[in-house]
């Protein structure tokens, strides 16, 4: 484990990034590029160390390899999500589609497939960190608005809270951000790219079908039938929009 470049909690302090990869040369390369981009970087090379450091350091972003020995990246993400809502960017093998899907289902925000350039990864980290945090100006405006209701579904933008028939639905940060964007303009059909621009960032690059995976998880959690959905409709040839519930 490398020595810590620790950002303080003071305003203007560098964002903290935890790089988790058992390939030490790759971890060091990412450390070098991210440090050069102004981030405070820590490395972990095992899943157990990753969970412990995530709890200790409260990073803003975790760059997480899924192919870790022992405690793999999926389980690391699952455990981290029990105490942190930091952004999680997964590193996966190009042909490992199932791991990507499972990783997103347990709370990862995005993924990047190997091989990739260090510049691309830095751009991804920069993109997620530009997303608005709870308590910013957009949140202040949302606090003035009542929950948005679609049949049995209610989306409370101010409290970042979703219920179906009065029962709370546990969504990841990215899942909530997607349903927040869709429900704010319920008659509008969003393309995948528009949703990425709204939720990830206009600078985001990668496979736009990551949106489909997250929408699938949201539908499952809402109890929505993907064939005849009530809450999130598929607009053929376009993307998605909110249904009437």
UniProtKB/TrEMBL annotation:
Biological process according to GO: regulation of DNA-templated transcription
Species this chain originates from: Intrasporangium chromatireducens Q5-1
Example of a GO cellular component annotation carried by this entry: protein-DNA complex
CDD domains per the UniProt record, alphabetical: REC_OmpR (cd17574), trans_reg_C (cd00383)
SUPFAM superfamilies cross-referenced by the UniProt entry: C-terminal effector domain of the bipartite response regulators, CheY-like
Keyword list, A-Z: DNA-binding, Phosphoprotein, Transcription, Transcription regulation, Two-component regulatory system
DNA-binding region residue numbers: 145-244
Stretches assigned to coiled coil: none
Domain Response regulatory: 16-129
Name of the protein described by the UniProt record: PhoR family transcriptional regulator
Modified residues (4-aspartylphosphate): 65
Stored Pfam families: Response_reg (PF00072), Trans_reg_C (PF00486)
The keyword Cell wall biogenesis/degradation appears for this protein: no
Record keyword Oxidoreductase present: no
InterPro entries documented for this protein: CheY-like_superfamily, OmpR/PhoB-type_DNA-bd, Sig_transdc_resp-reg_C-effctor, Sig_transdc_resp-reg_receiver, WalR-like, WH-like_DNA-bd_sf
Ranges of residues in domain OmpR/PhoB-type: 145-244
An example Gene Ontology molecular-function term: phosphorelay response regulator activity
